Amino acid sequence: PKSRTTIFDKDVIVLEASVDQKSKGKIGTVFKTEDKKIAIQTSSGALIIEVLKPSGKNTMSSTAFLAGYGK
After folding, report:
1. DSSP 3-state of 4
2. Closest among 38, 44, 37, 36 to 6, alpha carbons compared
3. Does residue 63 sit in helix, strand or coil?
4. Model pLDDT for residues 3-24, shown as the tens digit of each residue
5. pTM for this predicted structure
């Protein structure tokens, strides 16, 4: 199964993600990592979105998504 969410007012499907267990911050905060990927802080680290698919678009890296849609 794939996870669906909304990022920057765009519906996306998260296809690949990883975890950074060393990350600390306020739970639920969405931020850009040093290597320009999308991350969401959780209680046990950060969920790093590696690959996603915006609705009606092709699969792309989170870095490419930020370049086109990021704020």
Report:
1. strand
2. 38
3. helix
4. 999 988 999 999 999 999 999 9
5. 0.87
